[in-house]
Design goal:
This protein is mainly α. Helices cover about 65% and strands about 0% of the residues. Keywords: Membrane, Transmembrane, Transmembrane helix.
């Protein structure tokens, strides 16, 4: 069976051996380092490091390919929107204007604008893969215990855990319902016209919604019967104590964040400017 999107993928790797709390803290430090800087040198370094981390985690690109394609599509749309609504943003940021292609009005293609788009793209390539890696290498129950460990209410943490567990369930239900409808003669292939395919898709969506509501009601009743939420604290089956690797990982990411901030703000400007 194919691997479900955004579901936990169990591997024997150093990344998987870290506790959920460690991976959450490291992801937050990584995100701060990437989002607070527009220094291209730092972003390139983080991108290379993300490739190395992916290699260590033993997660294959094809296992998250569909999500990556969606993200790349959104990235393309975002870059187009930035150029359409702010075609001279790079010029305003870097203070110079090197025209590469002269067009109508403010839509001249400049080296500064392309460099700004490069930085935006690098930010996506640094943060999004790290987020995906965090999700697919962390057991949902351990993720919930991690949130609770850093101060999040266990009720909210458990809700997040259920949501993450529910993603692969929805995908399995969708495939089951789709196969059942196809066995009844409902065609969802490209052979049908688009309006017909949309109409036929409703025969999958409606049963999927009703089955999801039924599962939600069952889970809610079970949690009520077991007195969930009665006490202020709870224990976690998946909670693990910190090991040596956890402290090393957090220390390295904290050091990386400090270096990123120092290099970024040493001249009082978040933007690395190669045009001066």
């Amino acid at each position: 069976m194919a691997v479900e999107m955004l579901s936990f993928i169990d591997r024997k790797s150093p990344i998987h051996q870290l506790t959920g709390a460690t991976k959450l803290v490291c992801f937050l430090l990584w995100s701060f380092a990437a989002m607070l800087t527009y220094d291209t040198r730092i972003l390139v370094l983080l991108f290379i490091a993300s490739l190395l981390i992916f290699k260590i985690s033993k997660i294959k690109v094809r296992e998250i390919a569909f999500i990556l394609i969606l993200i790349l599509t959104f990235l393309l749309i975002n870059n187009i929107a930035i150029y359409v609504f702010a075609p001279q943003q790079g010029v305003a940021i870097y203070g110079t204007k090197h025209i590469l292609l002269q067009l109508v009005g403010n839509y001249d293609v400049t080296a500064e604008q392309l460099f700004y788009h490069l930085n935006i793209t690098l930010k996506y390539f640094v943060v999004i893969p790290a987020a995906l890696l965090f999700i697919v290498t962390t057991n949902p129950s351990e993720f919930a215990s991690s949130l609770n460990r850093i101060g999040v209410s266990y009720r909210i943490a458990y809700a997040v855990s259920i949501a993450l567990r529910y993603i692969p369930d929805i995908q399995r239900d969708y495939r089951t319902i789709a196969l059942a409808q196809q066995a009844r003669g409902v065609d969802l292939s490209r052979k049908e016209k688009l309006p017909t395919r949309i109409k036929n898709a409703a025969s999958i969506v409606l049963p999927l919604i009703f089955s999801s509501l039924d599962r939600i009601e069952i889970i809610s009743n079970v949690m009520d019967l077991r007195g969930f939420g009665k006490n202020k604290k709870r224990t976690w089956y998946r909670n693990r104590p910190f090991q040596k690797g956890d402290y090393i990982a957090i220390s390295l990411l904290l050091l990386l964040l400090i270096i990123s901030l120092v290099v970024t703000f040493y001249d009082g400007n978040r933007f690395y400017n190669p045009f001066v």
